[in-house]
Design goal:
alpha+beta
Length: 141
C-alpha cells in the first residue's frame, strides 16, 4: 500500500496478502505455498486445490488450518492502517463443495462446517478471511 501510495498520495490505497496455513505442514505457509505451486508448475485454481488435497490424502493426517488475510490501507493523510482476519478451520474431507471455484473457497471449511462456496453471500461476509480483515480495518478508521 505504501509503495503505490507514493504515486497516488491523495487516494486511499488498499493492499491484501493472504496465506494458507495447514497444521500438518507448518513450514508451507503463505508465500512458500505460492512459490511451491510455481516450482511444481501448478497453474490454475483446480490444480492448486488438487495439490493441497493430495498433500492431505492420508486419512489420519491433521486437516486443520486457516487462511490469513493481512490488509494494509494507506490514507490521504499519510496514515498506514493494518488489520488481519482468519477464516477456515480445516480442509474439507469431501473436496470441492459448493457452487463456484474461487481460490480455495470450495475446499476450506469455516467454523460452521461449510465451505465458503456453500454459503450465502451474507454468511461469507462473516466467515471469509478477507472480509474479517476488512471489517477490522474499517473499525480502525
Amino acid at each position: 500500500a505504501q509503495f503505490v501510495h507514493q504515486y497516488l498520495p491523495d487516494e486511499y490505497v488498499l493492499s491484501d496478502d493472504t496465506g494458507l496455513y495447514l497444521s500438518a505442514f507448518p513450514d508451507r505457509f503463505g508465500v512458500v505455498t505460492a512459490r511451491e505451486f510455481k516450482a511444481e508448475g501448478i497453474l490454475g485454481t483446480e490444480a492448486e486445490q488438487q495439490y493441497i488435497l493430495d498433500l492431505l490424502r492420508q486419512p489420519s493426517i491433521d486437516r486443520s488450518g486457516y487462511l490469513l488475510a493481512v490488509m494494509g490501507l494507506a490514507t490521504p493523510d499519510n496514515r498506514l492502517l493494518t488489520a488481519q482476519g482468519k477464516g477456515g478451520v480445516r480442509i474439507a474431507e469431501n473436496s470441492r463443495r459448493g457452487d463456484y471455484i474461487d481460490g480455495l473457497d470450495n475446499i476450506v471449511e469455516a467454523e460452521n462446517g461449510l465451505t465458503l462456496s456453500e454459503m450465502s453471500i451474507n454468511d461469507v461476509i462473516d466467515y471469509h478471511d478477507r472480509s474479517r480483515a476488512l471489517q477490522a480495518l474499517v473499525n480502525l478508521l
